[in-house]
Amino acid sequence: MKKQFDNPYLQVSEPKSSLDFLSTIEQKKSSFYPLQSLLGVVGVMLIFLSFQMPVYFFIGAVFLFLRVFWRKKSDPLLSALQQSKLYYRKKRFNKCLASLDRLIEEYPTNYGLKLIKGECYLHMNRLGEAYEIYKYGFENSKESFLDESSQKHMVYLLFLIVHFRDFEFGKQVAAFYRVNEKAEFFIILWSHYYLGIIYYYNEMPDKSIKHLKKVFNLNSDFKSIPKVLKKVKQRESIESLI
Known about the structure:
The protein has 242 residues and is mainly α. The chain has helices at 23-26, 33-49, 55-74, 76-89, 93-106, 111-123, 127-140, 151-163, 167-176, 185-201, 205-218, 225-234. It is elongated. Mean pLDDT is 79; it is low at 1-5.
């Protein structure tokens, strides 16, 4: 693969995640939640007032610390959810993993949460652990990859299939998956790209060409694809494209 196309999953910016759909946790706030929120507001106000009196900064910081500690005790799942969102959006994936494990322990059948865990491993370059989660998720809950919030995860799964050259399993995924042409641009682009490679190695050149042509139509910067299309017709190797 050409240098500018390394780590394609980093180009998929679709922001939604399964974390945004755990509304049941948000609805189960403890009776202390209003007081905790007030404590947080007072803490922030004191920190702003510290420009006039520095001692307020330390008092405000204590208030904020107490709010976090209290919430962890009274609303452990809500705290884990909020921390997961915070660390996920700040790309602090190692921190996100710990909070995710708390949520997964409570919701073991929520494969969306496990896919986010796989994504964390992916961004930490722990590809083997990521693939184990994604493959298990597909084998046990294919529907998890069809949800709107999981479209990017299909790209990640296809990427990992090609990376580990698990083309026999890739054939199952390709037979199941239909690219959502209304999805984000990079999701469409990379889905077709990897499907084209997977179909090629499963000796299905017609389907491979179909997907690779769509890649070239979407992004002509893939200048090597016309040559690759000829190679596919001639049943030659397309190693240079991976």
